[in-house]
């Protein structure tokens, strides 16, 4: 449970007046951030707009000043996570190939694993929400479809690296892709940004473990 | 969504009569299995006993013939997953140490990773439910506490293996434990028992990737 708001708390009439002036108790960004925290704590389906209003200490109408529905908050958060992840994967895919003097597919895969860890950390609440989406509505189904496209790009990157002969061949590219990015995704279950491990260190260590394993090299 | 039941479907009066005879439309095991499927699909909090009764095509009283509450179904499923996982970790911990002619900690860690994959597959719905528990009730908090104890045993196994000098030392034992078992846990997101990969093959491949990494060895 998050502790009660310590920010500006406005009663219904004040916030409605503020809404008309375009300055309600919270800006859209704050409403979105707190909504995503609540969705992650209690589950999206179990959280009502009334719960969010209570948590923020404002009226429901103050929330509807910013968004038309609870689903719009979900859609915004999922879009934030998906846009960041998609950009990272595309950046890797758009890099010049080794055959034309650029980086190898294996180097690009390594960079993508590290970058996906950093994005997960930078957008932790939004990515956490994304990873819990089950397809219960058109908004969730659209997010799952965008995830599938990203997963396919990642799987292609793994296949390209395997074709270079630098990845072990006793595991399928599909399984490697699922396990490596499954490891990255599992970070949402325990990583907290206020811990001792910096995002860059975490990215380097996850990448090292994925590529080299936990055994000492002979 | 699961498709409608093809099993025995009894109307309220029939099942109530059957309940009095001790033979309702479904046995406890089936009610539990279908409940866990529904919880995983829709979320535990979002699933009511009425939803479950509708899904099974029986009255709520037919369900309460078997269990006193929805929470009892949750507790049963979590206990199934936790008991299996705990037994696997204890079996590894109880094995004779290498110093007394038994297996090394690294061998025991390897065996535990493989066994945890097999348990996840054997108890997939119950483990999936366990991994989604957020501590929203005393039953959930008790399950999280049992998970913590298991996680501590796993972390100790990783430390013991590190002490043998067979694990890389640039990553902390705690991080290794979280990443390796995070990888195992991520299987619930995509593994389906009807696929082409057998539980034993999956266990072997996850273990190989965790210990040796995805790069070809030099």
Summary of the model, kept short:
The structure is a homodimer of 218-residue chains. By secondary structure, chain A is mainly α. In chain A, 66% of the residues lie in helices and 0% in strands.
Structure description:
The structure is a homodimer of 218-residue chains. Chain A is mainly alpha-helical and 218 residues long. Chain A folds into 2 domains: 12-64, Homeodomain-like (Arc Repressor Mutant, subunit A); 73-212, Tetracycline Repressor, domain 2 (Orthogonal Bundle). The first copy, chain A, is built from 10 helices and no strands. In chain A, helix 5 (70-94) packs antiparallel against helix 6. Mean pLDDT of chain A is 86; it is low at 1-23. Chains A and B meet through helix 9 and helix 10 of A and helix 9 and helix 10 of B. Chains A, B: This is TetR family transcriptional regulator.
Let me know the largest β-sheet of chain A: none
Fourth-tier CATH superfamily name of the largest domain in chain A: Tetracycline Repressor, domain 2
Looking at the chains present, what oligomeric state does this protein adopt?
homodimer
Structural class of chain A: mainly alpha
CATH-defined topology of the largest domain in chain A: Tetracycline Repressor, domain 2
Strand percentage of chain A: under 5%
CATH architecture of the largest domain in chain A: Orthogonal Bundle
Mean pLDDT across every amino acid position of chain A: 86
Weakly predicted, low-confidence segments of chain A? 1-23
How many H/I helices of chain A? Answer: 10
Please trace the helix and strand order of chain A, writing H or E for each element: HHHHHHHHHH
Largest interface: A-B, 42 and 42 residues
